[in-house]
Amino acid sequence: MLTYIVRRLITAAFILLGASFLVYLLTASSGDPLAEFRASSAPNRQALMDARIDLLDLNTPPPLRYFKWLGGAAQCIVPFGNACNLGKNIAGQPITEALGFALVQTLTLVTGATILAILIGISLGIVTALRQYSALDYGVTFMAFLFFSLPIFWVAVLLKEFGAIGFNDFLRNPEIPPTVALGIGAVLGVIGAVVVGGAAKRRLIVGGSVFVAVSLILFYFSLTQWFRNPGLGPVVIAILGVGIAFGVTVLVSGLKNRKALQSSLIVVGIGVIAYFAVQPLLNDATGLMIFLLAIATILVGLAVGYFMGGYDRGQSMRAAAITAFLVGALVVMDRFMQAWPSYFNNSRVRGRPIATIGAGTPNIQGDFWIMSTDTLTHLVLPTIALILVSLASYTRFTRSSMLEIMNMDYIRTARAKGLSERSVIMGHAFRNALIPIATIVAFDIGALIGGAVITESVFSVRGMGFLFIDGLQRSDVNPVMGVFLCVAITAMVFNLVADLAYSALDPRVRIKA
Amino acid sequence: MRFGRTSKAVGIAAIAVMALSACAGNSGGNTPSTGAAAKTGGTATVVEVNAFNTFNPNTADGNTDINSKISYATHSGFYYIDNKLNVVHNDKFGTMEKVSDNPLTVKYTINDGVKWSDGTPVSAADLLLQWAAFSGYYDDADTKAKTGTSYFSYAGDNTGLSLTDFPEISNNNKTLTLKYSKPFADWEIVLGGPGIDVPAHVLAQKAGLKDTQALIDFFKSKPRGNSKAPLPTDPKLKAMSDMWNTGFDTKTLPADPTLFLSNGPYIVKSMNQDQSLTMVRNKDYNWGPTPNLDEITVRYIGSAPAQVQALKNGEADIIAPQASADTLDQLKALSSQGVTVDQGNQLAFDHLDLNFSGPLADQNVRTAFMKTVPRKDIVNKIIGKLDPNAKPLDSQIFVPQQAAYADSAKNNGSSAFQDVDIDGAKKLLNGATPEIRIMYNKDNPNRVDAFSLIRESATKAGFKIVDGGLGASDWGKALGKGGYDATIFGWINPGVGVSGVPQIFKTDGGNNFNQFSNTDADKLMEQLVVTTDRSKQDDLQKQIDKKIWDSSYGLPLFQSVNVDAYSDRITGVKLMPNQTGVWWNFWEWAQK
Amino acid sequence: MSQPTQEEEILAQQALAEAAGAEAGSEATGGLSQGQIVRKRFFGHTGALIGLAVFAAIFLLAFTSVGAFGIPGWWKYNHTDVSPLVNDGVPTSSLWPLAWGEHPFGQDRIGRDLFAMTMRGAQQSITVMVLIGAIAGAVGAIVGGLAGYFRGWVEAILMRLTDVIIIIPVLLLAAVVGQIANRRDEGSWIASFASNNGVVILGVFLGFVLWVGLARLVRGEFLTLREREFVDAARISGASNARIIFKHILPNAVGVLIVNVTLTMSAAILLETALSYLGLGVKAPDTSLGLLVAQNQEAFATRPWLFWFPGLFIILICLSINFIGDGLRDAFDPRQKKFKAKSAVETTSHSSTTAPVADASKGS
What string of DSSP letters covers B511-532? Predict the structure, then answer.
């Protein structure tokens, strides 16, 4: 095992050397760093060109320059040496600095989107696999491919137009015309009918009730101007909580496990009581506090599950903990909604909360909730755009993986021995289907660090992608190399991790050490 | 693992890439009063394309539009340039006067009460430092022989200041007098105007000098650099120039307030790396036009559609996006929500140059080719949607914003090339079918379209047009190297100053890519650069313009279009054709 | 580095397809050959059929309307002709009364016919796509096949080469290719060829870059197949390496290859679009769908036809290719029967799956 890792790392180092040499030469030959001066009519054109040549050391042939660069870069391997030198960009800024900032920007932008895309993609993949060749399957497949085929800058422009500008205009006077409310209700009703599947009668009932419920809720929202003053309140939290408790129990243990259901319901009760208890605390919230509260919530859930026990204590604990976490999330969401009006009326926001660009409103001040809301309103559009375009691969992959597994002998065995469909899917199929997904997730992380070049440019975020493409367009080698190093190293490390995880998860795969 | 180490070494908080942009950005200074009665107070958000990265916008690396604009808003000087391209003196800051013509002597006097935001008065020492940096007086580097040292890395042109001797400084440290060894046409805009943006007392302290006086004494003691006999690098001067070159670079607000001292209407309050920068009113400021707004926020947005949508969504108040017909239409569609759109011309213009060699060596062929160029059609199709009144540019030297343009355009012979004259061209060609390779930047849609239209038309007269277009990073290198017969590209008219003219049109000028050579024109240009009188300059330039047209040099095509748009919250924004853009009169901006 | 599209799709198939394709032939489906089974399944896949029909229609339309390879087409304009603006460039076609008009898709600002440009763009995009598919498929199959079959130092060298190329950002390579394709001052034959066929060069170069994912996949496939009994049998009966590779292993691996080539192709169209958006793809005055959309993105609110028509063609091509690929995948995969979760008991499935292999198992 250890030998294997060491060997992989050594190979990786050589691959990195070779690839970085190539990347250096390619970047150096990809353009003209003096382009901006070529047609300049400045009398001191030559002097400016000389300065640039001097700055970028252009008189040294690229292969030699690479080794100079490597000399600096090699010092990055010395731990705590602080001698890391990846050169400077065309503006004279050290690359190490630029990378640090860009990395933070990129991670803020893509982390949430990637996690959500994975979660939604995997869920959709499983559902479509279970209903292969149904209307739902075709619908999801079509939508997934459609979004996959859309150029992202195009999605972004549309999102800004309707998701931000349109929504903000709507917020000025958040009244939903009845026809629109009915229309939205109808669309969701049809979706509901398609999703639920089964006999026509069942579809009709579900579709109809979704239609009625959604339309009524929208009427209510319109009447109370809910979008201006949103909130859940303890009652809604309680109702949603009970729903969550049932849902989670179905997935985790099945409703037959009464103890699990009871633990979940108890947790919901505790959650509603806690709702009142934590309000004063939440007023002075910090990120750390929310994190600690989340931990505490999960611990409470585990404890309830443990004491409720039952024949399968583990299942009760899991169900209660997950329910507790989700109810906690509802409480936090409610607190965000309470902060919404003051964010909305903030003098910097001026009643247009959803932003089209950047990572935050300049100079905005406020408590934790205002600041977090600000970050969220800036992230919402790029996140949706990224999710839409990257959903397809996860959905399709999970679907095939799941289909493959569902045809395995051991699934038939599981069914034959009389296990419920729930335990076959959740306990046997799903877990094994996840194994190969680990590979593509690991692969994605490399791409994630590399930044979403186009998304960044459309949403004016200056992350890794911007650093890379900007360097490339100016034939500025150092930033390109900096980004490349980060991406390549991450990709290789995560590939190794994926391979190790794979062998740990799948007993059929053995590492030859 | 390895990545962990690297990322640790990479450091966490830091700075992202900055973007260099167009050419020189010598903008700065401040102004006499304007009788604006707008409401004071309020805020505005202005969109810029590139991110701010240094408080010294004069260095070769820091000389980007955005740095110059921030400097313009936070520093004052003896003059500024208005949107009619006049040099406007700011007498509240100080006076700049020509005291003698022979030898050309200019006296700069800074008024009492003008001070940096830390309370130190702005003095002749600050001006002296600027002179030392801009003139390259101490440089003794020889690039060929690789000897000597280049100290201050100044982005601008030092031909003017290199003619000056060490300036004379009055005892009260308020007056500086410059003596030129020969007359210099552009004396008005070489010093003291692009904002006096680097405080000498801060630089002196950071470079390890005792005080400002020590700095003056040091400069006085140091002889002019001589690249023929370079001296060893002076460590003191090196320390100063290093501070000047890179010491003010930052993407976050420095902890040390002396690094961003203001002597102008605004002072930087906060910076959000690569996102935004906020300036607030400088309380002490009373030596120039008083601004209306309390606070100006600058946000950086690269793409034009994103700028428009930000304006539409209320995230920005003032934008000046790269103009295209579609952007403009989108902006006009916003007029329902109160957005005002201004459009005009930029100083940049596209032109067709003909090589004085190859098939075009014969003037008849050149003239014939020029006759086929559908200038009106090009302007209508490329610019017409943006500016229905656009006309082809009719001067090689002036732009319509300059007073002399109309006169020059009338007399320089451009009238012969107003309309396409295929028959005339055929007659001149006399049955010949020369093959013309046209080089242009394929990544610039305007030039691609201009090429398509020229090809369409020239082919009718019998020319064989070869598409010699190159990608964005190659076409510049190919300029002047031959391999093409004609080229379409752009110049940026400096707007103010005449030093650029010989650069392009004189025999062996640095940017004379098509080998144009005319002895009469050369003589006129020699005269031009030593003429300090504005009207005489115009007169000479008109004569030069005519000589150029008479030689069938090529054709100016159209000026780029300049667009700005601002929301209904803001008033007082005015177009400006040069790189200062809307910022030129930022003090007149006001919130409704 | 643009969007994590193609690699994922390939990886997505990797683990599954390895085992699947191999067994396509061995399934007992009543005396039909593998080809027949695949064809039958494929033609039973509605989505794939529609995809195929749409793609064929686009292909014919694009290549006949404005002509190709020097043969003139039936449409009266080509993508570089400038004609006077009709109706201010607004599309002249209408649904009711059904009319085609002078410029059915409208014109751009200088009067080029957008229909001709879109058709030319579709040609270019299809060319890039097919080139990338063909080259990446061929190189991937050869490299992967050699590495997987011979193992040892051949594998070590080829796979390390793959590793090196796979971590070089595609954008960078595309930028360099763009440089070469637009460099015509050098006068060499490649430069003069590139000046007229920039898109071909782009396709060829990208093809030589994008094979890496396929090579990994094919290698995995070969690793599994070479251990199988029928290969042993062939070897014992004295078949040469070439014969074993071409007659015995390759036909069994071809399913995986084809499926993933189609997916690479659909990703290639998007890659071309992204590159053109960033100014690194096809250069004007030649055109491609991606370039048209990128150039006209600002027009989306004001002259939407400039944006919608090429965009529509991108989506149509991409969707149809994806559906074809989807159909092929289902057709080549013997175990992907139409199965229902509840009543899946009866389905026969021969699943003696070998490990869905990660690189780890192959001792790299």
Answer: T-TT----HHHHHHHHHHTT--
Report DSSP letters for A1-67, one per residue. Answer: -HHHHHHHHHHHHHHHHHHHHHHHHHHHTSS-TTHHHHT---TTHHHHHHHHHHHHTTTS-HHHHHH
Mean pLDDT of residues grouped by 10 in chain A (513 residues)?
84 88 84 74 74 80 86 76 73 82 86 89 88 84 82 82 88 86 91 82 90 91 86 89 91 84 92 90 88 93 87 86 93 91 87 86 87 91 88 82 82 87 83 76 72 80 85 84 86 81 68 48
C-alpha radius of gyration, chain B, whole number = 25
Separation of alpha carbons A461 and A466, rounded Å: 8
Contacts of A408 in chain C (CB under 8 A): 349, 351, 353
The residue assigned the tokens 């277009």 is B469
Contacts of C327 in chain A (CB under 8 A): none
Distance from CA of C34 to the nearest CA of B (A): 48
User: β-strand B276-281 against B295-300: which pairing, if any?
Assistant: antiparallel
Closest to C17 in 3D by CA, of C320, C265, C325: C325
From A504, which residue of chain C is nearest by alpha-carbon distance? C360
Query: What is the rounded CA–CA span in Å between residue B296 and residue B73?
Result: 10
CB A449 within 8 A of CB A467: no
Chain B interface includes C80 (CB < 8 A):
yes
DSSP summary character for residue B379: I
Residue B102 DSSP label: T
Q: How many CA atoms lie within 13 A of A115 on its CB side?
A: 5
* pLDDT tens per residue, range C189-208: 555 565 566 678 778 888 88
Shortest distance, CA C174 to any CA of chain B (angstroms): 13
- Burial degree of A273 (CB within 10 A; 0-12, 13-18, 19+): exposed
Q: Could you say which DSSP state residue B172 is in?
A: T
Beta bridge partners of B570: B591
Give yes or no for a cis peptide into C97 (omega within 30° of 0).
yes
User: Could you give the C-alpha distances from C273 to A8, B484, C293, C318, C345, in angstroms and in order?
Assistant: 36, 31, 8, 11, 46
State the DSSP string of A442-478. HHHHHHHHT--HHHHHHTT--SHHHHHHHHHHTT-HH
- Tell which residue, B354, B384, B394, B410, has the closest CA to residue B557: B394
Q: Which residues of A fall within a CB distance of 8 Å from C208? A: none
Length of chain A: 513
Question: Within B247-396, where are the H helices?
Answer: 304-312, 325-333, 363-372, 375-378
Nearest CB among B16, B272, B305 relative to A102 is that of: B16
User: Which SS3 state, helix, strand or coil, does residue B495 take?
Assistant: coil
- Four-residue CA torsion sign, B510, B511, B516, B522: negative
Range 75-114 of A in CB contact (< 8 A) with B? 76-77, 79, 81-82, 84, 89-93, 96-105
Find out whether C102 and C92 touch, Cβ atoms under 8 Å. yes
DSSP characters for A263-309? HHHHHHHHHHHHHHHHHHHHHT--HHHHHHHHHHHHHHHHHHHHHH-
Q: Closest to B16 (Cβ–Cβ): which among A32, A98, A160? A: A98
Instruction: State the angle between helix axes of C34-43 and C305-332 in degrees (0 to 180), rounded to the nearest 10.
Output: 140
pTM of the model: 0.81
Residues 401-440 of A with CB under 8 A from C: 401, 403-404, 406-409, 412, 415-416, 421, 425, 435-436, 439-440
CB distance A453–C175 less than 8 Å?
Answer: no
ipTM over 0.85: no
Edge-first strand order for the sheet with B464-467 is: B266-272, B276-281, B295-300, B43-48, B318-319, B554-566, B340-354, B486-492, B435-440, B464-467
Q: How much is the CA Rg of chain A, to the nearest whole Å?
A: 27
Coil vs helix vs strand at B54: strand
Q: Given an 8 Å threshold on Cβ–Cβ distance, is C314 in contact with A138?
A: no
